[in-house]
């Protein structure tokens, strides 16, 4: 385990899964500048396990909050200290989106404002049935500043984004699931088990292909269909030359062969 001031990071060498815990429980894990910086530093520490590995070691990451809450949003106490136009720490959203392995947000308790934007920057969102999600910035006379409206417009549709952001209401996990803001909802210990199993399932897949799929899905939100299909083709052809493709093809042909994907 590696401990930062406001984040804890762990890497399981056996499963190839990393875990990041936002650790400001007294502030409901609100996003201070320090937490934003530590979140990036924690991801960088996890990624560093690939440097001397035989292939790609880190295959998936789970992000969660300490002591029952994911993240209650931005630390409002720091707003008055920011200069106009200052975006200190904002890049953690882009860092998550561009991170080379899939990231799963495991959501309990409050997931509001910048906390929800952080979760939506992740590739997947698994929520506890008691979680509460929302974009309350409107009640401060603000717009969600890190892409909340954009994220929901893409995950659901612009009308849903307007409803969530204009009302500032807290959504139940089930309602967020109906609106396609979260992927799955679970009760109690089921959330831990389901998230762990899903992360390990992703970690067992060919990592170069998983990375390419993540990139392709991100590109799909930015370009038209034909350009997106061209991008997919460009990513497809190099994968034909990888050892992982050979492993997968052998496993497909031989029922009793258990492939070992290394990211090469």
Automatic annotation (TrEMBL):
GO terms for molecular function: catalytic activity. It comes from the Archaea. InterPro entries: ClpP/crotonase-like_dom_sf, Enoyl-CoA_hyd/isom_CS, Enoyl-CoA_hydra/iso. It holds the Pfam family ECH_1. CDD domains: crotonase-like. Residues 243-264 are annotated as: Disordered. Belongs to the enoyl-CoA hydratase/isomerase family. This is Enoyl-CoA hydratase/isomerase family protein.
């Amino acid at each position: 385990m590696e401990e930062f001031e406001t984040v804890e990071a762990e890497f399981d060498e056996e499963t190839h899964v990393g875990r990041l815990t936002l650790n400001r429980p007294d502030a409901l894990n609100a996003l201070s500048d320090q937490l934003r910086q530590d979140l990036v530093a924690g991801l960088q520490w996890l990624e560093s396990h690939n440097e001397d590995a035989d292939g790609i070691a880190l295959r998936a990451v789970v992000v969660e909050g300490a002591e029952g809450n994911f993240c209650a949003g931005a630390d409002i106490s720091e707003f008055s200290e920011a200069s106009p136009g200052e975006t200190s720490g904002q890049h953690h959203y882009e860092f998550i989106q561009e991170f080379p392995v899939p990231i799963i947000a495991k959501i309990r308790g409050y997931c509001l404002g910048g906390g929800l934007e952080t979760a939506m920057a992740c590739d997947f969102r698994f929520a506890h049935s008691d979680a509460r999600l929302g974009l309350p910035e409107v009640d401060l006379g603000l717009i969600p500043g890190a892409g909340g409206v954009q994220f929901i417009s893409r995950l659901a549709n612009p009308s849903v984004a307007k409803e969530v952001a204009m009302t500032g209401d807290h959504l139940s996990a089930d309602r967020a699931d109906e609106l396609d803001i979260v992927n799955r909802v679970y009760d109690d210990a089921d959330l831990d088990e389901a998230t762990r199993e899903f992360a390990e399932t992703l970690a067992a897949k060919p990592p170069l292909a998983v990375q390419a799929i993540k990139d392709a899905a991100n590109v799909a939100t930015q370009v038209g269909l034909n350009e997106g299909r061209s991008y997919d083709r460009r990513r497809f052809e190099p994968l034909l030359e990888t050892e992982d493709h050979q492993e997968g093809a052998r496993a497909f042909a031989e029922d009793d062969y258990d492939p070992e994907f290394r990211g090469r």
